[in-house]
Design goal:
Length: 71
């Protein structure tokens, strides 16, 4: 549980085997910041632009070879 002391937020009570106790939070600690995970796109989405760039590079190389008479 938290309690507000003026402008400060303090830990008032930590229950046994709670996530707060497991994180090592103790009685009467001051809460200075709250961190939340940022919403990010999945890491697999990086492959889409990579494949598009590779396709564009391949197309450009074939075009240059055709113009130079190598194909």
């Amino acid at each position: 549980m938290l309690r507000q002391d003026g402008e400060k937020m303090l830990v008032d009570m930590v229950e046994f085997d709670s996530p707060a106790e497991q994180a090592g939070i103790d009685f009467d600690w001051e809460i200075t910041t709250v961190s939340l995970p940022a919403a990010r796109p999945m890491k697999e989405w990086v492959f889409v632009p990579t494949l598009m760039i590779l396709a564009a590079l391949g197309w450009n190389q074939r075009r240059r070879a055709r113009l130079a008479g190598h194909l």
